[in-house]
Write a structure and sequence with these properties.
Elements lengths: L1 E5 L8 E5 L8 E10 L2 H8 L17 E9 L11 E5 L11 E5 L4 E2 L13 H14 L7 E5 L4 H12 L3 E6 L4 H5 L5 E4 L5 H4 L3 E6 L4 H6 L3 E9 L6 H6 L3 E4 L6 H11 L7 E5 L4 H9 L6 E4 L4
Length: 308
């Protein structure tokens, strides 16, 4: 048997339960979970907001982002062996991350970076993949380009800032005054305190705006983009017609997981890109962790550590 964190209906408080340890089928592995990161998607699924995209069956063990050690390998798996340290993203509809063990398709596994504790590396998975998707798939960031990252102290914004700096871009960020030193430490050229400054008064000729905030930030960002520039948003789809009228392009990114992308993220982690940790908690703290994530109070990633 193993411990899980689960709920039996939308909105129900997540609680610890016991379930049989799952078995790895053909082309799968069983991972002993070291860490499992909480994402905004987890709280949206929990609230019932994502039923059209990610229908779930109850009882549901939430969570997608894991790190851990391979416990057993199923038939047909030749590239992985017991004891390998890995990270992976699970199918949101199936969930399963917030547990002591999880079954993962072998083709979704990536070797965990060696630059951070194994449990913490779970925090790379969705935020790193989203940032990579923005900068290198939806855009093609290049040395010397001017990039503006909104919400740079948040998980995706911080990772995107670091990736853009590594790519040689000139990176400007918005953050609160309390987070100024943190985001400056990520390599940002200029930090704009959004509580006391208007970024559109400080910047111009931006090639790429990464908007992790939404609201009026989107419309205001169109003013700082150069003609032909690009705005990429993560909270909700931007107004593409308004962007066209301003002579720029606007896109929406929803993270699409694959092992190739995650492999790039793990490589970048081993070259210095870091994850901001809010806290490490046990499964018994599930209700508090979900509430903290849903309220937007987390300063970084909340990571479940199923075992002491």
């Amino acid at each position: 048997m193993m411990k899980t964190l689960e709920y039996t209906d939308y909105g129900q408080v997540p609680a610890v339960a016991e379930r049989p340890v799952p078995q790895a089928a053909t082309s799968e592995v069983l991972v002993k979970v070291a860490g499992a990161a909480v994402n905004p998607l987890d709280t949206k699924i929990h609230a019932g907001y994502m039923t059209d995209f990610f229908p779930v069956a109850f009882p549901y063990v939430p969570g997608t982002d894991i790190s851990g050690t391979i416990e057993t390998v199923g038939d047909g798996v030749s590239d992985w062996k017991t004891g390998d340290e890995v990270i992976a993203r699970l199918d949101p509809s199936k969930g399963g991350a917030f547990a002591e063990f999880a079954v993962v398709a072998a083709d979704q596994l990536v070797r965990a970076p060696t630059s951070m504790p194994l449990a913490e590396s779970a925090g790379l998975v969705t935020i790193g993949g989203t940032a990579w998707q923005i900068l290198f798939e939806e855009f093609a960031v290049a040395p010397g380009q001017r990039v503006l990252v909104h919400g740079a102290a948040g998980p995706v914004g911080a990772f995107a800032t670091q990736l853009a700096v590594q790519a040689g871009a000139d990176v400007f960020v918005t953050a609160s005054g309390a987070d100024a030193d943190y985001v400056r430490g990520l390599g940002a050229t200029k930090v704009i305190d959004y509580q006391n400054q208007r970024f559109e008064d400080e910047l111009s000729d931006i090639d790429l705006v990464i908007d992790t905030v939404g609201g009026d930030v989107e419309e205001r960002s169109l003013k700082v983009l150069k003609q032909g520039g690009t705005l990429i948003a993560t909270p909700m789809p931007p107004d593409e017609e308004r962007a066209r009228q301003a002579g720029v392009e606007a896109k929406f990114v929803f993270h699409m997981s694959d092992a190739t992308k995650l492999g790039h993220v793990a490589e970048r982690a081993d070259h210095g890109v870091k994850v901001r940790l809010d806290r490490m908690v046990g499964l018994e703290n599930g209700a508090e962790a979900f509430a903290r994530q849903a309220a937007g109070e987390a300063k970084g990633k909340i990571i479940f550590k199923p075992r002491d």
